[in-house]
Each structure stands twice: as C-alpha cells, then as structure tokens.
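Changelog excerpt

This revision adds worked examples to the README so contributors can see how folded entries look when concatenated. The first example is reproduced verbatim below.
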Amino acid sequence: MSPKLATRYMGLDLKNPLVAAASPVTAHVDALRALEDAGIGAVTLPSLFEEQLEHEEMELVTMHHLGTGAYFEASEGYFPELDDYNAGPDEYLDKIRVAKQSLEIPVIASLNGTSAGGWVHYANLIQQAGADALELNIYHVPTDPEASGAQVEEEQVTLVREVRQAVRIPLAVKILPFYSAPLHMARRLSQAGADGLVLFSRFMQPEIDLERQEVLPNLRLSSSDELRLGLRWIALMEGKVNCSLAASTGVHTAEDALKLIVAGADAVTTASALLRHGPPWVSRTLRGMEAWLEAHDHPSLDAIQGALSQRNSPDPDNFERISYLAALASFRRSTRE
C-alpha cells in the first residue's frame, strides 16, 4: 500500500501538500482541471492587486459624479452609492465561481497589497463567490524614511485583523522575509487571525538597462537553491506559532518538498516548477515523494512532518548562529582538499 500524503492546511483537508501558487498557470479553468487531474492538492488563483482595486474605485467615482451638476436626471447621480455598488473586478469573482464548479480540490483566492482600504469589502465578495480560503500576499517595499519598522508592521497586522473580522473562510498571509524579528511578527499575524503563514513571497528585483538607460522589471524563475531561506524559518517557527505553515520558493523536486515537510511545513507551494514543466510535474513529484517514504518505511507524511524542526531536532543550534560557523569551517575544509 502506498504511503499516505494527506495533510491538513489552515483547517483544509488536502490529499497531498502540493499547492499551485498564484501564477499564470492557475489563471484558466482548463489549466486548473489539468492540475487537478495530475494530482495537485489545492490551487491558488492569480492575485487580485490593490492597484487594480484602486483603479476600479477611481473609475467608478468618475462615472458617479459625471454630469451631476448639468442635468436634472443626474442630480442624484447616474450610479448607485459606492456602498451599494459592486465596484470589484467581476471577472475575478467569476473565475472563483467557475473554478469551484469545475474542481473538487480546494480553491484559494489571493489578494495582493499592503493597506486595509477596500480589502474587507473584496474579501467578503471573494467569500461569497465560494472560495475555500483567502491568501493575503503582503508585498510591501517601505520607501518612506519617516515610517519605522514598527509602524509598517502595525499596518500589516491591522490589515490581517480587519480582514479576519470580516470573513469566516481560512486566511493565509504570504509574507516577505525582511522583518527584524520574524518569529515575533509571525506570532502577531497569527494572533490577528491568520490561519496560515506562507514563507516567503519572492522579492522581485528590478534590472537596469545601461544602453537604454531604463529601469526594467525582471522576473526570473526560482531554483532549488532558494529553498533554504524558507526551510530555516519554517523549522524555527514550527511549534512556536499557532497556525499552519506553508513553504514557497524553491520547490522543484520531491526531495525539496520532503525537506520542507521534515522542517515543519504543512503544505508546499510552487509556481516556477509549474511554469517550467506544467501539470506533469505534479504527478512526477508525488510519485517521488511516495517512493522516498516507502523506501524509508514511513507510512505517511505525518510520520516525518516536523521531525527536523528546531523544536524536534537533535541539534537545534544548527538553525541559529552555529550553522554559520559550521558552514564557514566546512567551506575551508573543502578548499584545502
């Protein structure tokens, strides 16, 4: 009998821990069906961005006031009040509905932004559309020299708290790795209502074209080498934060996924591997995970989940400063050989 890969993430029962991250791969229902057929545990729809919401609101305000001083018919406005009008991207909500009608696996919606604003409103609409869970992708580049780290963090905690109070569905928060005290911030987000934390949102760095003298967006897909940042912090957070933990960035092989599970992850998300290899990657990775578990006489993922987190590791110092010293010593030995 094959080892069991079932896991529980944010209170959702998944048949396995592989979750398709928000990306172009999850934008169309045919691709979602192909991922489900390949065995994916859950899918995250592409993000609805704060900038899109702001644009929708501004367009609606313009239409609402157009001509109100010129014609009697417009004296009370051509359009209903904002509070009564769905200004959201209807296409996104339709995608949620279609995905839910087409799939049996959990469908996770995604909002990407930094401020509360209309997030509560859109979170409610997403819940009403039938999403099984909502992921808040907090992608923030703090450029205001007057804003302290504490202020930036407080705004993010407030955002999570307000959304949590507005919806009942599970709430994940995808964070960047740049907090001065990540464990403390993780606890604050959990206390504010996060059912899960996704470590980490991949920071996109701009490029400079010297010849054209332009700053350009530059997206590069991840590699397995980028796995270790999330692995370390998941291992440090396991058992110390009262919510599910999911890994993001660097998941390209069955071994990558298993390492994160052993570190303490409840689920692993991937976008780059799916962008490179498509749905067949899912079935290959699941077979690889089952083969490893069977070869090591483990009946299920539960048998290894968190086995090498800092809390459970026989050498917990390896996740702290001692690992830095050990890495330097190991490198010196390798250069002498």
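The second example, added in the same revision:
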Amino acid sequence: MPKQPRMPNMQQMMQQVQKMQQEMEAAQEELKHEVVEASAGGGMVIVKVGGDLEVKAITIDPSAVDPEDVEILADMVLAAVNEGLRMAQELAARKLGGATGGLDLGGLGGLGMPGL
C-alpha cells in the first residue's frame, strides 16, 4: 500500500508564517535606517541610498561640472545611482532573506504568496 503524504500541521504552519511576518516587518524597519554609498568617476559623484531603496543624497565634486561636456556628468550620476540601488537591493535581500530562514513551507512554495 503506498504511503499517504503527511498533512502539514496547519496551526504550526500559521505560527511560522506569523513569526516570519513579524521578522520581515522588523527587518524592513531596520532597512529604513541603513544607508549604502556608491561612487563613480573616481569619487567625483557619490550617491547614498537607503535600504528602503530611496536615494538619500547625491554629492557632485565641482570639478566634475564641465558645461562643455554635461553628458559625462550625467553618465557618472547614472552609474553611481544604479550601483547604489544595486547595493541597497543586496542589503535588503540579505536582511529580508534571514527573516524566512528555516521556515518549512511544505507544499506552499508555489501558491504565489509574496516572498514564498
């Protein structure tokens, strides 16, 4: 006789999901206070991005401002912002990924629930 699949303990699973939700909320709150810094052009453009993916500051060295070649400055700003956002996303993935660590979701992984 084939072995029947074991039904997950729904109460235990709900407790795990609630705990995970609390940890995710705490991690998201922490991320609001974390800031990464990225630069371009040898430090001529510096961008600070929060863990919540909000650009907090952009600093431009005055020597980077050349009215004859504004495109280079725009490229440096773009490069620094993109790098800052990438770094902030990695930070968020590390912080939020830890909140789901060890959670046994059984067969729920494919239900389209956010974060699963």
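Reviewer comment on example two: Residues 70-99 form the longest helix (30 residues). Residues 30-100 form a domain with the Ybab; Chain: A; fold (CATH 3.30.1310.10).
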